[in-house]
Design brief:
Largest sheet: none
Number of domains: 1
Shape: globular
Number of strands: 0
Mean pLDDT: 93
Number of helices: 9
Helix content: 55-70%
Low-confidence stretches: none
Radius of gyration: 15 Å
Distance between the termini: 37 Å
Amino acid sequence: MYNQEEQLVATLETLGVRYISRLTTVKASQLGSPAIFLAKLIQQPGSRVRNATIAVLLAQPDLSQAIPAALEILNPDEQMILKFLYTAAVVLQKKYAERLRPYLSDRWLWLPDLFSIELGLLVNQPPEEQLRALGSAHRQYTGVVLNWSGTYENVIHHLLRRWELEKIWSP
């Protein structure tokens, strides 16, 4: 499992998600099936890689097309985790669109909102309210008392900070 996690982190790097520290020099594998890749991210026991699902969807919004197929691979609990993390990416993309767009240029694509209604979110609320409601639903579903909305925000802050630094490092 450890080797698979390292391979996933290496693959994330090739997809623009480079804020996660690697512990080995394992090489990235070919992306292959996006659905299998997304499913493997969700199935990781470590939250640092599992939560990177949000970041990779923000960095590569076209991967959203693989969400239905990824759900078919996952068991019911994993499906719900994917729905929560995917929806977090949808809401964060709305909230941070102005900061994300310059880094995505020709890859920019709005993530379709697939699960907000199922997860009990009101789509006409501001993103901050949606994140709070999503975090509350996530906490209720998992039973894990955690600031889930803060966890979602932490992912995008790491992603954007890394991209900002990379822009400085290579002008």
